[in-house]
Structures are given as structure tokens and as C-alpha cells.
Design goal:
globular, alpha+beta, about 40% strand, seven-stranded antiparallel beta sheet, 3 helices, six-stranded antiparallel beta sheet, about 20% helix
Length: about 220
């Protein structure tokens, strides 16, 4: 193992420790946010969150942060995962995922999202978080990007979106290509999603699905 590799590993461990502490603190604070009582789970983009401001101020990379509202949390299961496609081929496993449910509380609400630290380096860190839970930042190995174009896009806006039980939806996407431009995408159109997967060199999709606990055997 050469000196450069050693330094990358040291820096990655430093990021791992620092952001584990920082985001655990923000997770605790974010749990205090309140929404009106309603029946359906909802989610909405939040560009004014502590997560978003931290990433922007420190130029850490990309993050999508959402306000998440889950009624009947004691009877439901939340699955969040990140798919990656390279040259149109889907990875055999999600690059990161988070699954939780059967809360002791009837209502769970707070921040939910996905972050990518150092997206242009070989050792990119990714993590997921939701109210009261999170994954540790983990490294996804990929080739260092020097001449490629990239785009980070949110699939939903600041208006609340109702989540239908058992129906997965895309929340955000990261795209990378060696071409001179990146085409637009309609997240509500499956053909448009399939097109960018085929056209772009790499596509990363953040997805979520809410299920009744009985449906997943819990």
C-alpha cells in the first residue's frame, strides 16, 4: 500500500468520524419538527435544512434533504435505498440502504435524505438518514472523474407529495457522463428514466417505499 493510498484511507476515516458525530446531532434536532396531523405519509424537499446548509457552506458534495411525515408509524415499514447503474448495468446490490419500522410512536416526522461527500474522488462517501436512524458513511469505489459532466437532481419539489403504500418512488438522481451535455429528465416518465440509464455513464437513484408491517412479515 503506497503513501497516496494511505492518505486517502486516513482522510476517509476522518470524514467518517466527523460526519457520524455531526449528522447524529442534526438527526436528534430534526426530530423536533412538526406537521399537521394527516393520514397519508408525505415528503417534501427542504433546501433550508441544517444538512443542506452544512454541505453548501463547506462545499462537501451533494445532498438531498426532505421533510418526512409518517402517520401510523407503529404499523408501517420504511425502505430507502440507492441504486447505481454503470453503462446501463445495475449494481447487484444497492450502494447503501436503510430499513426501519414498527416505531413505538404513532407518528414519526423529521429529516430524511441522502448525501454524497467528495463525489469527484475515487473514494466517495455516501450515507442515508431518516428520523432517529441513519447509516454510517460508506465508501463507494469508482474511477476519479476529471473530464466528465455531472448533475444532481431532485425528483420532487417543496410541495408535499403523498406516498402511496407499497409504491416506490424516486426522490433524487445523480448522473455522470463523458458527453458534452446532460439531457433533461421527466421523473414521472418511466421511459425517460430508462433513457438516461442507457445514455449516461453512471446513474444513481435514491428511492423510497412505505409498506404496512404485516406485508413485510413484521
Amino acid at each position: 500500500m503506497n503513501f497516496k493510498t494511505n492518505m486517502r484511507l486516513v482522510n476517509s476515516r476522518r470524514y467518517f468520524l466527523s460526519f457520524s458525530i455531526m449528522f447524529a446531532t442534526i438527526l436528534f434536532i430534526s426530530g423536533c419538527s412538526q406537521f399537521e396531523d394527516q393520514k397519508d405519509p408525505t415528503i417534501a424537499l427542504n433546501t433550508d435544512s441544517d444538512y443542506h446548509q452544512t454541505f453548501e457552506n463547506l462545499n462537501l458534495g451533494y445532498i438531498s434533504d426532505f421533510d418526512f411525515h409518517l402517520p401510523d408509524a407503529d404499523k408501517r415499514w420504511v425502505n430507502i435505498w440507492v441504486e447505481r447503474y454503470i453503462d446501463g448495468v445495475k449494481d447487484s446490490e444497492p450502494i447503501t440502504q436503510l430499513s426501519y419500522g414498527n416505531s413505538p410512536n404513532n407518528l414519526e416526522e423529521g429529516s430524511l435524505g441522502f448525501g454524497m461527500i467528495n463525489p469527484y474522488d475515487e473514494d466517495t462517501l455516501v450515507f442515508l438518514y431518516a428520523p432517529g436512524v441513519s447509516t454510517h458513511p460508506s465508501i463507494i469505489e469508482k474511477e476519479k472523474s476529471t473530464n466528465s459532466m455531472s448533475s444532481w437532481e431532485n425528483a420532487i419539489g417543496e410541495d408535499k407529495v403523498a406516498l402511496k403504500i407499497g409504491e416506490p418512488i424516486i426522490l433524487a438522481a445523480y448522473r455522470q457522463t463523458e458527453k458534452d451535455s446532460i439531457s433533461s429528465i421527466d421523473f414521472q416518465n418511466e421511459e425517460s428514466i430508462n433513457r438516461i440509464i442507457k445514455e449516461d455513464d453512471m446513474v444513481i437513484l435514491l428511492k423510497i417505499v412505505i409498506e404496512e408491517s404485516d406485508a413485510v412479515g413484521n
